[in-house]
Every structure is written in C-alpha cells, then in structure tokens.
Design brief:
Blueprint: H1 5-71, H2 74-81, H3 87-108, E1 112-119, E2 124-128, H4 144-150, E3 158-160, E4 172-180, E5 187-196, E6 214-218, E7 224-226, H5 239-247, E8 253-255, E9 262-268, E10 275-281, H6 282-333, H7 348-373, H8 379-395, H9 398-414, H10 418-434, E11 441-443, H11 444-462, E12 469-470, E13 480-482, H12 486-497, E14 508-515, E15 518-525, H13 532-543, H14 561-575, E16 580-586, E17 590-598
Parallel strand pairs: 12-14
Antiparallel strand pairs: 1-2, 1-5, 3-4, 4-5, 6-7, 6-10, 8-9, 9-10, 11-13, 14-15, 15-17, 16-17
Helix pairs in contact: 1-6, 6-9, 7-8, 7-10, 8-14, 9-10, 10-11, 11-12
Catalytic activity: ATP + protein L-histidine = ADP + protein N-phospho-L-histidine
Keywords: ATP-binding, Cell membrane, Kinase, Membrane, Nucleotide-binding, Phosphoprotein, Transferase, Transmembrane, Transmembrane helix, Two-component regulatory system
Transmembrane segments: 12-32, 297-315
C-alpha cells in the first residue's frame, strides 16, 4: 500500500503553489494589466492611424483623375492659350465650358465644391457646384504670384489647406497644379479644385474611439486641417505638440494640449505631407483597471478554495495509477508477464497501460510461436525469432521502467503535472514503437524519433538536458534501417560509455555518409572507451555472426556487449551477413560504432 503521507504532501504542495500564485497575481496584476492595456491600445491606435492615412491618401488621389480630365481638355487649354476678349464671347466660352466639362465633373464627383482656372495674364474663371453654392461673389484670397509660389514647380498636384477665396465660410482643401496649354514648353496657368474638409469624417465612420476620442489632421506648418470641433480648424497647435508629432511617427505619447491628459498616436502621410493623429483620454484607457483589480481578488480567492478542495482528489488520481504501474513493472522484473487492468481514464497513463498489456500479449504469443516452431524451422528462422524477442525484452527493460516510474512519482510531488505527461507520453510512444513486431525495416527518421523519446525520459532521470549532436543529412532521413537499432546503442553509451557519470563535456554524435554504395551511420561518444583486450573480444564476437546470448555465461563481453551483439545480428538477419556493426575505441578517449546498411529508400 502507498504511504498516505504522499497524498498529504501533494495536498500541501498544491495549496502552497496556488497560494503563491494568487498572491503574485494580487501584487502584479495591476501593473501587468496596465502595461498590457497600454500596449494593446497603442497597437490598436497605430493600426487605426495607418489605415486612416492610407484611406485619406487614396481619397485624395481619386481627385487626381478629376485634375487629369480638366487639364487635358482642349477647351481648358484654349482658355489658357487664347482666352476670349469680348464680354459676349467670354460668357459664351465659359458657359460652354461649364456645360460640357465642369457639370459632368460635378455629377461624377459631387464632393467637389469649386473649380478655379487662372492664367498668368490675370484671366480667371470660377465654377461652383450648383447643388452646394458655397461662395457668393468670390474674390481670390491669393494673388497669382502667391498661388504660383504655393504650387509645385514641376506641375505635380499640390495640396493646400486653405481656400483660394476670401469669403468662404467653409473650411476647404484645395488641390492645385500648374498646367500647360496646347504646347508643353511652358506652364500657362493654374488649375485648382476644392473639397470640404468635413468630407474626411466620412472616411472614418465606424471606428469607435470612445465618447472623447477623435481624429485630427495637422499640416506641416502646425495648422489644423481637420478636427471634429470646427472652431479648431485653421488654428495652430503649440510647438511642443508639433515637436512630439514630428518626432514620434506611429509611436504613442501623452499630451495635454487639448485640456486633459490624452494618449496620442500620429503618422505622416508620404503623399500629402500631413500628420494624421488619433487621440484618446488616458482616463478612458485606465478605467478598466479597477474592475481588473477587484476581479483578480475574487477570482484568486475562489481559485485557492477550489484548489484546496480538489488537491486531495488530485493526489489520489496521480498516485493510484502510478502504484498500479509500479506493481506491474515489479512483476515484469521477475519475469511474470501479467496484464494490468485498464483504468478507463482515457489519458496518457491509461494508454501506457494499454501499450504495456499489448507488449505482454505480443511477447507471450512470440514465445509460443518460438516453442511451436523450434523443431520444424530452420536454424536461421529460429535465430531470427529469438532476435526479435531479445530486442523487445532489452528495449523494455523492467529496471528502466521501474526507475522511470519512481521518477514520475517524485515529479508528481514536487512539480506540476506537465513533467508527468511528458514522461508518460514518451514511455507510451516507446512501448507503441517497440511492440510493432511485424515491422523489420523502418526509416532513419523513425529511429531518430524513438531516440528523442528515450532522451526525454533520460532528461528526467539524470536531472538535466543532454543534447544529441545529430549531423545526419536530411536527404538520408527516409533511408531504410533495422528497427530498434539506434536507441539500444545510445542507452549502452549512457550505461557503459559514461559509467563514471555524465559530465558537461560529454557528447554523443550521430552522423551518416555513403561508402561503396552502402549507407554508413556513425555513433560517436567521448566516454571512458575500452581497453584493447575488451575491444578485440567484442569485435571477435561481432565477426562470429551469433547473438550475445551464447556468451552470457562465459564471462566474455558482458559489459555492454549484449545490446550491441543483438543489434548487430538483427541487422544481418534483416539485410544480410555483409551488414552490421564495427567498433573502434580508445581507453579514456571514447568509442565509435560504425553501422553499415544497404542503400535502400529515397
């Protein structure tokens, strides 16, 4: 019977772990939540600003097509080259221009408020959207020299955040450019179209910034081009805020220029040169933290209470299956292959028991087959069956399984259950792979997976990681090898090559190459090595092409020879007498095992 103190220890450890966790959450949740909330808010605002900049640029670029339709029109070019001189001719010309060119543009782009065309000889014509009528008796706010200076010298479209007319009661965005006449040798005038700044608000509908959050656009001079508060449009932001906007592209900063402290994220448009910013009060951002504080306290208390109630049952659920497995392994150690009853838990421990029972059945059937065919089969077939049985028995070493499960019990007491899952899953996978008695050949990659499961278990047995240096080229991974070849040899290195204990300088290296159209796998370690006498004895056994079982009672090669001899002979039984192991070793330096296989597989 398992000592009851183990369950009490599990109860105490679980309670201590949960209590420490709850206290840590209580002290750190506010700080962590505050930082995480700020990061999420900043990321959210950054994405909003980036999308808004892109949408604004695309919105303004659409008006380049309106410009193109105007400055390529022959009537517009005629106005620049040879404007009508008489009043009637001037009226007739501009009226035709309105009917044939401007009105279709207003119909196609109803957001356009005005169209302004002027040449360098002080001739100008102005058209307003008949559906909007924004200005009565317009008077230009710019002289031609000022407007010429504002626009791009190469004829590219220039964005001006003011109207070209003085009497405008609306905040306009002016899109202007220098244009040619019929001859492209010089610019003849300036074309400008205007849209209301309020149109930008339609781009950002559906984005929720809270009751006090807003978008704003600031040009290069610090003048506000757009703001939800129309009284701020056209005003200039202070120098401190402008410096932050210019120096923190897509990075958040705090500012109090608009009254209360706010988090601001801005980005400069490469197309317009404007700075689009989004602003949210920090009070709105911090408001959820108080609820996080209270919820952490109550959840932590309930979690502690629930953990105390469940820890006892948790201890029994862990220790009872392990005890059953340990007793089964003790019977296996004595040679009694007794099936263990299933737990019906549908977890890794239940799968491990299932694989163990399958192993017991397979071994029993294999032993019966060997007994029935002993008198009728040829010597080679009998030796093959014995090799398979010995391979399974050596791979599922009862001492190894017993010690491993003891480690699982210790981990259940002093650590969380993730280590138990890792160890049990590795053992179950090794069982599953080991009991596949109908498979003689397998790919190198499957052998490497089997080795990795073994190394997972060894990590917990020795108490630290041991990295295998695998240098096998990936193109060899699907080459054929005999099943259960690499893991017994690596286990042999841990038992005999590192007999004095595993040190930091120890290594195990796996490599492979082609030689004489055969595949050579090399397993190398820097362990204790072998004496010349022991090496000669072991190589002599390998050359006899017989299993190590015949030597067990003669004292020759008992230190690590049995596993290598069985691997060697099984390779020969699968692929032929010309394949198998050869060994090179030097005392105090290390050992190399050369494994030869035929070149089979892709």
């Amino acid at each position: 019977m398992m000592k009851p103190s183990l369950a009490r220890s599990i109860f105490a450890y679980v309670a201590a772990i949960v209590l420490i966790t709850v206290m840590s959450i209580g002290f750190s949740s506010y700080y962590i939540s505050s930082n995480k909330l700020k990061e999420q808010t900043e990321q959210h605002l950054t994405e909003i600003v980036s999308n808004a900049v892109n949408h604004t640029d695309l919105y303004l670029k659409n008006y380049e097509r309106a410009h193109l339709s105007l400055f390529t029109n022959s009537s517009v070019k005629k106005f620049l080259d040879d404007p009508p001189t008489g009043d009637y001719e001037y009226y007739q010309f501009t009226d035709n221009l309105m009917d044939n060119v401007i009105n279709p543009l207003f119909i196609k782009s109803p957001e356009i408020m005005t169209v302004y065309l002027a040449d360098y000889n002080d001739h100008w014509v102005y058209y307003e959207n008949p559906a909007l009528k924004p200005i009565v008796d317009p008077v230009p706010a710019f002289t031609m020299e000022e407007l010429d200076k504002e626009t791009d010298a190469l004829g590219n479209m220039t964005i001006i955040s003011n109207s070209v007319f003085k009497e405008s009661n609306n905040q306009f965005i002016t899109l202007a450019r220098k244009i040619h006449g019929e001859v492209f040798n010089e610019f003849k005038g300036i074309l400008a179209i205007e849209i209301k700044a309020d149109e930008f608000a339609t781009l950002w509908k559906g984005i929720n910034l809270g009751p006090s959050g807003f978008f704003a656009i600031v040009d290069n001079d610090g003048r506000i081009v757009y703001h939800p508060d129309k009284q701020r449009i056209g005003t200039t932001v202070n120098k401190a805020l402008m410096a932050k906007i210019e120096g923190n592209d897509l990075k958040s900063f705090k500012d109090s220029s608009f009254g209360e402290e706010r988090m601001v994220v801005s980005s400069k448009s490469a197309y317009t040169g404007w700075n689009l910013m989004v602003s949210i009060p920090t009070a709105d951002i911090n408001r959820p933290l108080s609820s996080i504080r209270y919820s952490s306290f109550w959840v932590g208390g309930l979690t502690l209470l629930l953990a105390l109630l469940l820890s006892y049952r948790f201890g029994r659920n862990i220790t009872k299956p392990i005890q059953i497995l340990k007793n089964g392994m003790r019977q296996t150690e004595k040679g009694n292959w007794v099936k263990i009853p299933q737990l019906q838990t549908k977890n890794e421990l239940d799968e491990l028991i299932q694989r163990y029972n399958l192993m017991v059945v397979s071994l029993s059937e294999l032993m019966d087959t060997l007994y029935r065919t002993e008198l009728s089969k040829k010597d080679a077939e009998l030796e093959r069956q014995k090799a398979e049985l010995q391979s399974l028995q050596l791979q599922i070493n009862p001492h190894f399984l017993y010690n491993t499960l003891e480690n699982i019990i210790v981990y259940a007491v002093i650590q969380q259950s993730t280590e138990i899952t890792e160890i049990v899953d590795a053992i179950a996978t090794m069982f599953r792979y080991s009991v596949q008695t109908h498979i003689e050949e397998t790919a190198i990659v499957n052998e490497l997976k089997h080795v990795l499961n073994y190394m997972t278990i060894m990590k917990h047995r020795v108490g630290r990681e041991f990295e295998l240096d695998v240098r096998i080229p990936p193109e060899f991974f699907l080459k054929k090898t005999a099943r259960l070849t690499l893991q017994p040899l690596i286990e042999n290195i841990f038992q005999h090559g590192f007999a004095d204990g595993i040190e930091e300088h120890h290594y195990i290296r796996l490599d492979a190459w082609m030689k004489d159209d055969d595949l050579i796998i090399v397993l190398e370690d820097n362990g204790v090595g072998m004496t010349p006498e022991h090496l000669a004895s072991l190589n002599k056994q390998l050359s006899t092409n017989q299993l190590a079982e015949a030597k067990l009672h003669k004292g020759a090669g008992n230190s690590g020879g049995i596993g290598m001899m069985n691997v060697h002979r099984r390779i020969q039984l699968v692929f032929g007498e010309q394949y198998g192991l050869s060994i090179a070793s030097e005392l105090g330096v290390g050992t190399r095992i050369y494994i030869r296989f035929p070149n089979i597989g892709t």
